[in-house]
Every structure is written in structure tokens, then in C-alpha cells.
Amino acid sequence: MRLLAFCTLLLLEWSSGLQVGVEYQYRYNGQVENSVSPNHDQLAVIAIRSDITLQLTQEGVAIFKLSNVETGNFHGNTTTCDHHHVNSSYIGYEPLHADTLSHPFTLYFNQSQTLHLDTPEEPEWVTNIRRAVVSVFNIPMLRGQHTFTPNFYSVEETMAGFCGTWNTIIKLPEYQASIEKQQQEARIEEDVQQSGTAATSSGSYTAKTAGRKQTSSKTSGRGRKTSKTTGGRLTQAGPQIKPDYWILNRHVEFEKCHGGFFSKINIGKNTDVTVKQNSGGRYTLRGDVDAWRLEEAAVEGSVTLSNGDTDDEYIASFTIQTVQLVAVRLIQTELTVTYPPHRHYSLNYKPQNRPFSNLVESLGLSLEEAVTGVPMTQQYLIDSQALIIENIEAILTSVYRGLANNIPVSDYFTSSVERLSYFTKAELDTLYSKLPRGNPEEINLTETVMSLMVVSAGTDSGVEFALEKIRQGSFPRHAQNWMFNQLYHTLKNPNLLPRLIELALNLPWEGTEDAQQSKTVALLSTTKLANKLCFSSERRHTTYSGNCDTEHTCQPEYIISTVIPTLTHTLQNTEYPEWKRLVSLQGLCNLGTPSIIPVIKDVALGLNQPTRFMRLVAVSCLQFSEEMYLPWTARYPVTSDILMPLLMNIGELPEIRSVAFLSMITWIPTQQWWNNMALSTWHEPSKQVANFISSVITSFATSSLPLSDLASNAKVLAKPATISPTRSTGVFLHELLHNCKTREFSRIAWLSATKEVFPPVVVFQLITSGFFGVTEYTDTVIYQQGFLKDIAKKLRTFKPSGTSDEVLLVLDMFVELKEDLGMLPTEPVIDHQAWFRFNLRFLMQSVIAMLDREREGNAIVNYICDQDSSIVLPTDIGLPLVIKFTRDRVNQVYTPQTPYDTPGLGQEMLLRVHWSSSQHFTMKTLVPWNHGSVVESGLRSTDSFSLDFLIRLARTRTGGKITVKPFSHDTINVIQLCNVPYTSIGPLYMDTLTTDHHPIYQLHINEEGEVLPSTTGISLHYSWSADIPLSFSSIKNWVLTMNRPAYKNYRFTVTLAPQLSITKEVVIHFMHSMVQQSQRIVETEPEDFGQVSQGASDYNYMSQVSQSASASDFEEFDQEFGQEIGVGNEAEGSDQFAFARLQEQTLVDDGGRVITIGASVEFMSETPGSKYETVLTWSGRTDRVVSRILLGFTSHPPVNQLQDPTATCFDLTIHRPQFPPRRLDVVTSDLHKTFNLQVQRGTSCNSDPPVMRVQIDMEASQHSLNHVVHQLQEKDCNSDIDQKLRPMRVYISPVYDHINLHATWTQGFPDTLLNLTQHVDDHLRAWLDPIITYDHTVTNPGYHLLINATKNVEVDDWTVRSQLPQAVSLVEHLHLPSVISHLITAPAPLTKTFFFNYINDRTKSMCVVGESKVQTYDGKVYNFSPSECWSTLSIDYANKHEDTDVSKVELSIQVRFTDQWEVRLMYPWTGSIVEFNRAHVKLNEEELTEPQPDRVQYYTDGGSMFVFATGTVVVEVADQVSLWMSEVHYNSVRGLCGNYDNEADNDLTGPKGCLYTDPELFASAWTTTGRGCNRFNLNREKRKVTAYQESCPNQFYHPTGVTQPNVTENCIDWEYKEVTQGQLQCRSLVQIPTCKPGCTPAFIRDAMVEYDCPSLTEGDHQEIQCTTIPYHTTFPAKCINVH
């Protein structure tokens, strides 16, 4: 065996591949096929084929010659495939006229690798074709490197670089080898290597031509067979080769390729696309260790682009290369090279122009020209110039006169941006000079549109053009702010960054509001861009083309030496307003470089007296992220020197500690650290910090994020959180969770946490700028801005319940109370969420202000390119593949002038609105021959929405009126949705609009119809053309196209044709009224708004007494806005909603407060047309036990039609338990709830019996009540709160476990409602299909439905039995979502259940005031002696009102003790002062005999008085006073009950912010006079308070940097480490810490650090090529001062 092994080694040493002196002739075919999944039936194909002559003239030297070169293409559908590729018979080939390609070329190689390639001086694309051909033959066997292990791994040189390759070689068994031999010999025309005899051939070798004689009557061409002769002579014998056949399979690992060409432009690591590349080959070899030859080979590759969630939907580019041996001869005439050789040292693909990044980014070449070398013609540039001007004119036309041909405006922008990316600076100047000129407004808009286009192209020439115009002062002001945001997505050259930063730094802070906005946006955008291009360790995933020389990459030294000092100076300048310093601080944070750590450290530790907001932002900056924040090398300096000292310092602000904990977890600490922090929640003195830590651990533990496992293990050790995180810390938590989940690293929490200090216009600009282009997640924006809380507060009480006089009086008393207490004046809280105010006046003013601020003249045009990303990579056949994805959108608003008043009509304005967006995912194979072409496949979707109306607004006494009419008679596509998967073959230079796209699927389904009934008289037509039916799933696809293109072909339009519409204008009336029980309705004459009222008296089931609205919610609006919006005809305001008044009167007769809202739509032509009206009226009796809701729909025919109106009325009565509960023992209460619904239909709602009756009964069993109470006991930790609030908590819990429904209906039940119920039933059946069963053997009474539902409270699922007319169904184990379960199956009203569970928070904090002690909300207990003077328990300390716009939750609560406890609650928003004791309740000095639901609710129980006020406060008066506060008041109150911030230690805070240690003095500070109060004693105590306040301590918490000076040392500098490896001079990608002089390392770390290693490539065209290499690096992780 040893001898055999030795002999084998000798054979391996002596063996060779292809034989010297032998000529091999092959046929070669290469194809690229582009298609779209899933079936790939439609293909766009480009192909090249030729004959290959291969001679080995000596060892390691091979000469190739390509002859009979032909190219062709195919575009269409085919199902006849060869190995899943298009058969050659489909492709029409033509000779390729490229003389250089037919020149012979030489390959030099050895056993291990190819050495170099000698070719003529030729275009690079020709050399790439040669490389692709040679790559097929570049296998170890043919180079003479042999191995007989079945599987082996090798690193091979491919078109994509040096790639790891897996090889499997198997020798065919004798039988299979014989079959293979027969197949090969049948194809080979001549073979001198046959054993014994040689093959015969009709073509003999000619020494002079080194080609084939054609003895057949047919020429030998590709795809045509050459006839063989049966006789022939024996050719000269050559080296013999054994008839052993081998199969070699190879697979390339592209993820392990390096050194090749791969260019990325604006590609984020987390871009929402997936690109996969594969390549593999199957080779048939003949021979053994003595000699090898290649019989045939098939190399297949693919590149797929996926933007979806499924693996079967993608865009693909497939390649196939085949070579087949056709002849083997001895060399009779050597191929000779007669040209000066041009040497190439690599088989890797090379672009035409190198360095590629330099030419694309700096010289302004288009990507197509830089890659292929095929230049644009001058005519193309001229045509492009004309097209861009035409597009700009079309955009202006769409603004001033409406859409041209209904083409979405985004198409014009996209097409122009693509063309402008080819323009040089001089060509842009020429184009600018040719822009159409009109009036000044049109000129301004024209320049704005071009500026948007130029900047969106992101080229050097475009940025240079913009910068020059800015310097000249001619760049539109609207476009300048937009430019900085846009370049974050589109800038292609990092070298332009210094110029942008210089511009941003030189913009002035001072000046107009526009200047402040511009400076803010410029600083924040450019610093984020600097992080993306210069500092992020993942910048190679953003823009990278393998080049890293200093001339073409970002140099961070400029940023470090210029930007950081400038921003630091602003940050540390206390003369600047806080918001400007915050912007500079956030700008530093955006950089994400460790060089900012010393500055951020000082702010975070509280040195030099930074504000609380500044410290919060600074601590949040100290996070780790590969994409955005600080790099991993800063771990120890940040965590050990800053974050952990802040976190562990119990004397630090709880908010600072909480955010420090949040930043700490981003550095991925150990499991032990997580466990320790979880355990610390049990003994943490700060409840706020403990709750926050527990909330963070729980949030991550219940998610599927990278930190989930660590958090899950620690969750069981943490104390459960009792309250949600505070607003200032919660936004940071939400942002971190959002970033971890979406990998879309937004930074908006800093603005949300600090927006109070910003000017409103700056905040508005930052918000409308899309938060600097880094997020599009609406949920995050809504959360971060606190919109939900704002809405909740505003919905809590829509209108002040008291009169205006009451509100003003109570407000004056509230302000007087604050003055008596000496409370510090505070700045008003700015309401930045103004668009959520339910105030029409403010809304109109805001819109007008926005138009005046943002528009250029009378128009707003905004073009936003969210993504413009490209990848360029080589295919196996040597052609470049460009993967491109773009996403953009356009917003247009046009108003000819500021909305103006029309006497008698109100306010009038023309409003033309257009919005459109497009997304484009494409793969383009660039073909350089024959003047260039493109083979493309892709997805394109376009959505647009357009309005073009004249709008009038008018006020009426009961509401308002809006009149809408088309501005022109032109047809307009109101909605357009289009999605096309396509393939195409076209010229090399083309754009979106001029490309001939061939859709993958035919639009074989066409549906159309009218959107509105014919009675409306409006021609609103819809059209659906698609390969899928119009259905719910197709509608779902529309939604998908809003985010990304879909793999379906459809087009949906909704078209308005005014010229075909009978209706010329639409009048919309709306009303709102509120009537109390005591109010009677005054008769007035009915009004008809120009239409004869029909059938109003037919509604005689109600009182026929008409009414006028009183106490309208628009009362103040009317007074304030009447002059602004104009007052409509007074005759119009009286009785437009006669039906509404009838409904309202019915409920007023029932008693209680009645609210009515209504809307009507009237379609007007020359005479009044059809009118549709809907009115909703609801009421609740004072005890809130019975509520009634009336909903009516009426349809009035046109005046000229003698038809009766049609009415459908719904009458719902709800009987529910009392809420709040009047018994503490709710377990024995009757919680029965009943719903009774009656539906009437006809010309009058009482002329016929009801067409439907429905009764729903809901019951709570004793078992369910006990179960809920038990669950509440387990959740509650405070027994006092548990005892007092448990009744209310039971009422808002899902206690009902039995529901019965009985419905009956008649044949008169409306068909529309019947169809709707059947449609809903179909969907319910589909949803319940897995758990529903049917019994069709029974027949039940017709027109009856019985449903019985029972809940299993232990497992929280339902069993539902339904008795239908034709069947009985049974649903088992139905689990309802928790939100639905809480809202539906709780005894309390739905609104109360929602607010208590999801807004106010079920957990309330309690303050207890006794005759000797006070226990605050946060648990602090101190001595207290009450008196006849009023002691303030809680009062809102922020001045949240401007004039009469009072905060809806602002209040004060005071107590005093005479012979019993008395409480006074002041609530300015409702104009209420509630005074009560254990027996009596007064409202504004008047004794109450029953509760008033809208102002105060109360009940007595067991000698205690319970008062519920404002929906957020509960007070119990008994032997002591107990006060519960909702989370709405969290950290916004002060008083004897503390600050309600989860921090007990600071509860003794006085009105002026003083911290007290003497409880008696503290109580005196919060005491005011009152009837029976001893003023002499009070004044004496107040003097002590005043004296103490002069020099009192007012800061309970102290910055860590002040109390712990040892943590303020700064011993670390940051540098880019350089190493030398051979001839490579490498530089670290991230900054490495190093100790300053005088400091010594305290901890050394060893780690692998990635370095950029530039090197010069070999060959005539040398370039600096960059390779990223990891090196083992030692650096100090922590340094200490040795002195």
C-alpha cells in the first residue's frame, strides 16, 4: 500500500492537464435571461455564441481564438426550455462586428492558478467576454492540478473575485462511461487522442488557416450540423487519452469572495431587499492523471432580488454557459499574436473605467457609461434636455391647470431625475438657462422643480449646481431645507460631504424663523450623513466599490477637527437658547464617533450645569450600534466610566438613571448583569427606576429581539412594574424597541422628550421633514409625539360642561389659589400637536399659515426620493448586472390665493391637491455591443390621488356647510393604482417613461362600473384591469403597493367626469348640538337650504315640535371664527336637520343629556337633487343606568321626482348596572345588562311595524365574579387601594360569561342590510372554519336567530351555539382578543372601560390624609395636623392654559377639618367647584340632590362619601380622606400628597420648589385661608415659610459629576490605528482607544479589528484597491490617571 501511495504521488507530480501540441475546438454559447417569478414564462434574453480554438503551445501557455462570433436576443413567452433555459432555436443570431474579439489571446497559468492574460488593446467589455470564456476552462484538472478525493475545497479566480469553491468529482462506472463515450464521439468530428484509431471527419485541419474546411454543402455554423463522411484517412496520431469519464460538479460560495468588482451605492445593510447570487457548473472530463480534456461543460448562475416575505416571489437574472468539444487535432499552424500584448493579471471582471467610484462619483459619468464604456451620444443629451423641459412644463401644468393625460406627476420627476444623473455641471447650467419663463410665480416654481430634480440625482454636478445657486442666493428657500434631507438618501460621492458641512456650519442661527429652520435641519442632516459615510463601521455596506484611496472616500479627520469643535462651542455657550444647544448636542450624537465621548461625558455627568433635557439627550447618545451609534471599541470607556456610575448613583435624577440603564443594555452585557439588575428592583429606593428596569426587562422578554433570551431569563427575578415608564423615558424605550425590531434606526425620541423648549416653527419643520429622512413608521411618530395621550385628554370632555361664565370664574379662582400659595410661574406648555385640536378655527389658521410659509407663491411642490440605491456586479458571461431600487413620492398643493371671504357665502378657496408615489425594483443586464442595449426585468408600481375642486366653507347656527364643485370640466383620475411586473429589451440609455415594458401577465380580467348610485348624478367611474379578480385580496395588494411593488399586474382607476355629471356641486351640512333635560325646544320655521322639504311631517312617531339647537359645541367657535370664515345665510341655519330635531326631542322627553351629531350630503344641479342624511343621537339618564341611541338614515329624491323619502331608523336602548358602582360588595350585585334594538324602515319610521327586533342579555355568574376578584387580588399589592377601588375595577373587567341573543325580522327587512349581514356572516364562517360545526338536519322557525354564548373563565374561551332557520352551528374554543373581551364583556360603559383600561391605567395611586398623618401617592408618611384652614392636597403646577384654553385635566384638591372632613375640588375646565363632606355635595355653592354625570358623580356607602370627578380622580370622605389619582396626572401635581412621580424622597416639595424636612412647615406652605380659619396663626406660619424660602434647598438630586468627582477624569484619546503587513499599509475602520500622556492602562483588551488595506493592482491600469482584513489588535479598554 505504501508503494502504491508513493507511485500515486509520482503520477500526480508528473501529470498534466491539457496536452501540449494539441488543438482543441469547442462550441461556446452564453445566455443571460431576465424574468420575474413565479413561473418565468416570459423572458428577456441576450445571447452570444462562437467557436473556440484552444492551443497549448507549451506548458502553462494556452492560446485562445474566438471565431464565428454571433449575438442575438429573444423577448417573449416560451414554454419550450432546454434545462430550464430558452432553446437557441428561439434566438435570432447575427454576426457580431467586433474585430478585436476575433484576435487570438494568450493565457499563462501554472498548476495552482492563472497568472495573467495577454490581449490586444481593446475595450474592457471585450476583455471581460474573454475572461468569461477562460473561466469555464479554469478548473484544477485542466491546469494539471489533480486530486482524487471525491470532495475538495479550493479558492478559484472567478468573474466575481477569488471565491471559495466546493468541488465534487466522480468517475463514471464502466457502463455509464460507455454511454457517455458514444454520445461524445457522435458529436466530435475529429479526435487524435482516440485509442488505436482516430476519428474521421469531413473537415481536415489546414495549417494556413488553423480552421476547418467546409466539405459539406452547408456552412458550419452554430446550430447547424456538419455532415460526416463514412470513409476517411487516419490522421496523424496524437497523445493518447484513456476513455475514463469523470463528472465534476462545482459550486461557488459568493459570500466568501474577495478582491472582485462589486459596487454599492446608497445601500443600507438593512435595506428591505434580499440579493442572492449562485453559480455552479457540471463538467464532463475524459482522461486520468496522465492527461485530461474537457468534453463539455454547463455553468449556470443566477442573481435574484426579493423584496417580499416569500421565497417564491423574486426578480431573477439567469446565466448559462455551455462548451462542447467538437474536434481534437494536432497543431499544424500555431495561433500567433501579432499585436503588442496588453497584460491583465486577473480573471476578475473589470468595468470599462477605473477607478469605477472615481469616474461615477467625480467625473459625472453615468453608471452605464462607466461600466460598459459605451458613451452617450450628443443627440441623446439634446433629447434629454428637451424631455426634462417638457416634463417640467407638464408639472407646472398639473399645478396650475390639472394633470395632463392623467399621468402621475411622480413619473415626470422619476424620468427627469434619471436623465439629469447623466448631466455635467455645464450641461445643467445650459438646461437652467433654457427653462421656460413666465410670470414671477411660475419662474419661482420652475426653479424649485428643477432644484428638486437636480438634488435628487445626487451627482457631483447636481450638488455643485445647488451649492452655486445657494451662494448666489437664487436657490429656492423651500428647496434648501429639503436638499439636506434628500442628500441623505441620494448623495453618491463622500467627497462632497465637507462642502455640505461647511455650508451647514456657516448658516446663521440668528434671523428669521426660516433661518432657524434651515440651520437646524442642515446641522442634523449633515451630521447624520457624516455618520453614514465616514464613521459607521457598516459604511462598507452603504457605498462601496472596492476603492479606499483618500481621494475618493470620506476622511473623518476633517469632521473631527472642524465639526466637533464648532458644535461643542455652541453646546457650551450658555448665552444660546437651550434648544440651539440641544440641536448642537444632537448633531454631535449623530456623528457616532468616539471622539465625541469627552464632550458627551461632561454633559451626561452634569458638569458645567447642563439642563435636564440636555443630560437626557447626552445619556441616550451613549448607545452601541454597528449602523448608527458608537462603535464596539467604546464599550468600556462608556459603560464603566459613564453609564454604570450614573445608573448606580441613587442620588442621581431617576430619569437620568433610567435612560442610562437603557443605553447600557445596547452594549449587550452578560446574563449575570441582567440578573443583578432584575434583583435590584426589589430593594431599589427609587420606584421610578425600579419600574423602568422591570418594564424594560419585560418588554424585551416578551419580544423576539436579539436581547430577548437574556431578558427572559432575568424576568422571573424582577419585581413586577406597578406603573408605566414616564413620558420622558418611555419615548427612549419605545424608540429602542422600534429600532431593534425594524432595523430602521430612527432618532426622534430626543425631540419628543425635549420639544417643550423648541420654537413651534422649528418643531413643525423637523416633523414635516420626516425626522431627517430616517423613518417612515407612523406608529413610532404617533407614539413619540404623544398624540394618543393628547387625543385621550381632548376626548375626555369635548366641551366644557359649565357655561362660559362659570369656566372664567373658576379659572380666576384657580389662578388666585396659585398666587396665594406663591407657586412659581412656569412657561406655558407648547401644544405642538395642534392638528389634533378639535377646533375648526385653529385648523384653518394652521393650514393657511402652512401655505404661506411653505409654498413658493401659491403652490407647494415637494418631491422626495426615499431611496435611490444601486448594486453593480458581474455575471458569469462577463456582462455587468445592475440592480436598482428607487422609491419616491410627490406632494402638490395649489391655492390661487390665500382663502378669502365671500360675503354671504363664507370662506372660499380653490384647492388642487395631487399626491403620487412610485417604487421601482429592477435588474438590468448591460450589453455593450452594437451600440449598447439593456435586458431588464423588474417591478414597477405607481399610486396617485388627485383633487381639483372649488371649496366654500360657511358657518350656520347649528354647525357648518361645505360646498364642493369641480374647478374644471376636464376628466380627472381621482385615484390611480398601477402595478406591473415586466421584462424589456431596449437601448442602453433609457428612462422610466420611454421604456417599452412588456407586462408579465396579461390584463385578461376587466371590470368596471360606477362608484356612486345614479341618483347622485355624479359620474365617478371605476375601472379594474388585472390578472386577478377584484376582491378583498386584490384590495390587500393595493395596500402592499404603498410600501413595495407586488408580483401582480393590475390597474385600478377612479375617474371623475364633470362633463358627464348631472350634479354640478355637492353641499355637505354638518351639525352638533347638546340639550339638557331642563331645556325645551323652541319652535321655528323649517328651512330647506334651497330644497323643498319632503315628508318631514311624516315622522310622526316622534313629537312634531321642532327645535333650535342650544348650547352648541360650536358656540365659542361661532363667536371667534364668525368674522374669519363668514356667516352663511341666516335662513339656512334653522331647520336643515329636521329629522335630527325629531330624534333629539324623543330623547329629551326620556330625560337626561342629549347629544346629536348629523351630516347631510346634497347633490345639486340646476335644481336641487338627491339628498342623503344621517343623524346620530344619544342620551343617558342621570343615573347612567339607561342609555338610548338613535341612528337614522334618510334618502330624499330630487325635487322634480314625485317620490317619498326613504328612512331607516335604528333605536337602541341599553340597560346597564350603575357606574361607578354604589356598593362595595359587587360580588353580590346584579350586573345584568340588556341591549334592545329596533329597526324600522319605510317612508316614515312609525308607519309600519319594526322590520327587526334584537335583544341581547349579558349575565355574570357568581363563579365568574369570584374568578375576576381573585385575579385582581393577585395583581394588587396595596390592600387599601384594593379594598376601595375593587368595585370599580370589577366593573371594567370582563366578567360577563353568558350572552344570549334573540333576533326576529320580517320580509320587509331591507335587502341592502340583509346582503350586508350575509356578507359579514360569510367572513365569520371563513374565520371560524377550523372550530365550527353544523347540523343541517334540523329546521327552525324562519326569520329567527338565537345565539347562546358561554365563557369558560379558567381558559378564557367561548362556546357559541347558533340556531339558524336552516341549521344549527356550534363554535367551540373561541378565544377573543383581550381588547375586544375587555370592551364588550365589562359591565361599565364602553368609553369608561376603554379610558380606565388603556388611557388612565387601571393602577391608581392613593394618598391618605388622617388627623395625625399623611401618606403620599409614593408612600411617604409624615406627621400632619389638620385645621379649619384649607390644605392643598394636590394641584397642577404647570400653567397649561393660554387665555381660556384650559387644560382638561388641570385641577386642585383641598381639605380642611372642622368637626368633620370637608373637601373642595376645583376643576376649571368644567367650571366646577365641588365641595362635599360625608353627607352633602355642593356644586358651585348649590346643593346637589343627585349626581350630574358630566361634572360630578357621587354615592354614599357605609358612612363614606365617594366622589368621582373629571374621570381621573376618586375621593372618599370618611374618618379620613382617601384620594386616588389616575396616571394622567403623573408627575404634574404638587401638594401635601406629594409629587406623584414614584419618588417618595422628594414628596416634601413646596409651592416654590423648596425641599422641606419639617412636616409642619411643609404643611403651612400648602395652606390657604378659608371660612373659620385662624388667619393670625396662619399668617405667623406663613412668615416662617417665607423666611425659609429665601435660602431653601431646591434640588433633591445632584449630578453624578458633582457628587462623584472621581468619574470625571478623561484619560482616553481616540485614533485610527495603523499597521504594516508586508507592503500593505492598513488603517482601522473604527477608532481605537489610547491612553493620554500621564495616564496608564488599567485594563487591556485583545480583539480582532477590521482594517482597510489599500494596494495597487497589477497591470497597465493601476488603481488603489481596498481589501478589508481583520487583525488581532491590543488596546487599552480603560485608562487611569497615575497622579
Automatic annotation (TrEMBL):
This is Vitellogenin. Residues 1404-1574 form the VWFD domain. Residues 1-17 form the signal peptide. SMART domains: LPD_N, VWD. Keywords: Disulfide bond, Glycoprotein, Signal, Storage protein. The keyword Disulfide bond applies. The lineage of its organism: Eukaryota, Metazoa, Ecdysozoa, Arthropoda, Crustacea. InterPro entries: Lipid_transp_b-sht_shell, Lipovitellin_superhlx_dom, Vitellinogen_b-sht_N, Vitellogenin/Apolipophorin, Vitellogenin_N, VWF_type-D. Residues 186-238 are annotated as: Disordered.
